[in-house]
Amino acid sequence: MAAGERVVVVGAGVAGLTTAVILAEAGVSVHVIAEEVPGVTSLAAGAMWGPYLVEPKDKVDQWGQRSLEVFRELAEDPAAGVRLTSGIEASRTAETAPDWATTLPGFRPCEPAELPDGFTSGYRFTVPLIDMPSYLDYLLRRFRDTGGVVEQRRLTSLSDPGPASAIVNCAGLGAGNLVPDPDLRPIRGQHVVVTNPGLTEFFSEDTGLSPDLLCFYPHGDTIVLGGTAIDGEGDLASDDKAAASILARCAEVEPRLAQARVLEHRIGARPTRATVRVEEEAREGGTVVVHNYGHGGAGVTLSWGCAEETQALLSRI
Ligand SMILES: Cc1cc2nc3c(=O)[nH]c(=O)nc-3n(C[C@H](O)[C@H](O)[C@H](O)COP(=O)(O)OP(=O)(O)OC[C@H]3O[C@@H](n4cnc5c(N)ncnc54)[C@H](O)[C@@H]3O)c2cc1C
Predict the structure, then answer these.
(1) 46, 50, 144, 180: which sits with the fewest CB atoms below 10 Å from its CB?
(2) pLDDT score recorded for residue 3
């Protein structure tokens, strides 16, 4: 893909906007087409760097590490909404530390006194937390600063975008219909955003594959409380009962959250498949499509690594 060629990126979630930024800053003329700007699922993320509900492990490690490097750089720019934050991931059973955490700065096992009641093990480390509304705005600004164009409309097929040297498919769950891809499925997640009563550290419980999660991620004046992971559910209506349970679980670990004012409910459906799909496909009529979707519960974590691989695939065309 040479400088000056026109590429259409479908999708304005974290996958689409990151890919659009990388391509546009390399001199490619990029046109983003998306129904939602920014993508609702990406807006709903917590978001913490760390792989969750995503495969395959070797590629996830590689994409995740590359993204981690970029997020560390972005944390130096206050406009990006990325903060390197210390906190604890803990378990109620004697779990070993997740391997992705052990190489993070400040990694160490917790002293028993650091753990909330009922928890038997935990680890402290420092990781990027990403305030998604600010971060997606930052990506959009960075893309538009290159002269990139964003068109808000729904596509009915991948042949719909008009003339382009190539199409990059970052449609998240929408790829299920557009490709079509029957392997994609939603895993619904809900967060409650509240005023921050003064917390500066994150907390996350290792809940394994449970649908009921427990985490809180401070972003300055607000704090995102989680969460849920309901496999197969794509309905985005707010669930009051789930929200009340999230608040109760979080307040049990951090009583200061009990009095926090609820500001917003954020709901999204993680675009999940057996493995993330980053690959090219020659379609009927000669159009080349490069896919970048299916990031499950780790689309933010993998965003820069996947976008760079997408760019490398395009550069071979
Ligand atoms: C509650 C929750 C918590 C999460 N927490 C984290 C976390 O802490 N860390 C992490 O790394 N990840 C997290 N995730 C996962 C992460 O949010 C997703 O993996 C990621 O947002 C997927 O990004 P995307 O750009 O592929 O999809 P989306 O954000 O869904 O964007 C898809 C885009 O494609 C567009 N589109 C789709 N179909 C069409 C069409 N037919 N025509 C035009 N446009 C179309 C949409 O309008 C949208 O703009 C979380 C997810 C949820 C729901």
Answers:
(1) 180
(2) 57
